[in-house]
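Researcher: Good morning. I'm working through a list of sequences from a screen, and I'd like to move beyond sequence-only analysis. For each chain I'm collecting a predicted structure so we can compare shapes side by side. This is the next one on the list. No need for commentary yet; just the structure.
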Amino acid sequence: MPKRIFVILLAVLVLAFASVPTFAADGSGRGVLSWFSDVGGFIRDIFVPDGNYFNNQLSRLNRHINSRFAGLGELYQMIDSFFKTLSNPPPVSLSLTIPNNFLFSGYRGTRVAFMAPAQPYLKLIRDVLTAAVCLLTAIVCYHKLRTFFTEEG
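Model: Good morning. Structure tokens for this chain:
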């Protein structure tokens, strides 16, 4: 019989302490049970990291990689930001616009877009330059890794 009472009491205590973080997050611990909210906050802080935990760990990892691989991580971030801007380029336009009634009364204005015929060629040049930057990146990364491992060995 005492063993059953002990098991029931233990189950009630486990359920009470399992609900403590929820009670603390709710913020309703006022008055006599305010210590319950403090205990809940303590238990929550043990298991749930602060808001900047993952950002801090990622920046710490980036610093470690940059110190270990001699700036290879910074090179990657620079190239990554470059390709993100290349993936959605702004439209290129060079146009001459003459408004209505500019030269004389009744003149119908005109607009000439100089870059419109060159759009396919500009896209081809951008693709070729992107491929060249990818190739150059592979060569630089290979060289950095090769010098890193030959200096260590």
